[in-house]
Design brief:
alpha/beta, TIM Barrel, eight-stranded parallel β-sheet, 8 strands
Length: about 260
């Protein structure tokens, strides 16, 4: 069984003591690739450094909506420069977060639009964070991303939004949230999502799935998300893994990318 964790934060300090061991466990769990995602300029740089160091790891670069108040022309210029590194396969994560509102909403929208335009310019897919911001997320995507591939990461919005973003051509990324016992409504959405539009994610070190809930999450735990997703679709986990891995390889243009060694 081959798996692809399409959204990890391996650059975060919580992996500094045992990053090699974490990656080794991922290999042994069947992962062939990991996409480690930039959340601001410093983490984007670290993601690229990791992708240069480890075969099978690739990077994205972007500015998370929490930090959108930092966005200016200089930040936009540096994201564009970083995005042209060979190891960078996507722009993001970017988007809108109206749950925490760590940055003013107008500044979030400005940074989101700019990064979507950059993704279009560079012909790279986009990784989108959307929390409690369905209406604005959809409106901006319809204006800026009509022909832009990408993924709504850590999907936890409505069934109606799922249908709309899939109609726009986007994938849905599902994390350990899918395994939480009290989120049967999310499993229902997952069961209605075409398998060719599904990606598997950990969003590690956050949101460890059952039965690892409460622990630090890591890429190897994506196997638990795969098992629940396979159950949602009534297919063997090996088949679900093959389909979703191929989805990720195609979206991020990794068909000829090196695999995790081991």
């Amino acid at each position: 069984m081959q798996l692809f964790d399409t959204h990890a934060h391996l650059d975060f300090a919580r992996f500094d003591r045992d990053r090699d061991e974490v990656i080794d466990r991922a290999k042994r769990a069947g992962l062939i690739n990991i996409l480690t995602v930039g959340a601001d300029l410093s983490s984007s740089r670290r993601a690229i450094k990791l992708a240069k160091h480890y075969k099978g790891i690739v990077a994205s670069v972007g500015l998370h909506p929490h930090d959108a108040s930092q966005f200016d022309q200089e930040v936009a210029r540096e994201i564009k420069e970083l995005a042209q590194e060979e190891e960078v396969k996507a722009i993001g994560e970017t988007g809108l977060d109206y749950h925490y509102d760590n940055s003013p909403r107008e500044e979030q929208r400005k940074a989101f639009r700019s990064q979507l335009r950059l993704a279009n310019m560079l012909n790279k897919p986009v990784i989108i964070h959307s929390r409690e911001a369905e209406e604005d997320t959809l409106a901006i995507l319809k204006e800026e991303a009509q022909n832009l591939p990408g993924v709504i990461h850590c999907y936890s919005s409505s069934s109606e939004m799922a249908q709309e973003v899939i109609a726009l051509g986007f994938h849905l990324g599902f994390t350990g949230l899918l395994t939480f016992k009290n989120l049967s409504w999310l499993r229902e959405i997952a069961s209605q999502t075409p398998v060719d539009k599904i990606l598997l994610e950990t969003d590690c070190p956050y949101m460890a799935p059952e039965p690892k809930r409460g622990k630090r999450n890591e890429p190897a735990f994506v196997t638990h998300v795969a098992e629940v997703m396979a159950d949602c679709h009534g297919i063997p986990v090996s088949e679900l893994a093959e389909i979703t891995t191929e989805n990720g390889l195609e979206l991020f243009a990794l068909e000829n990318q090196a695999r995790l060694e081991g």
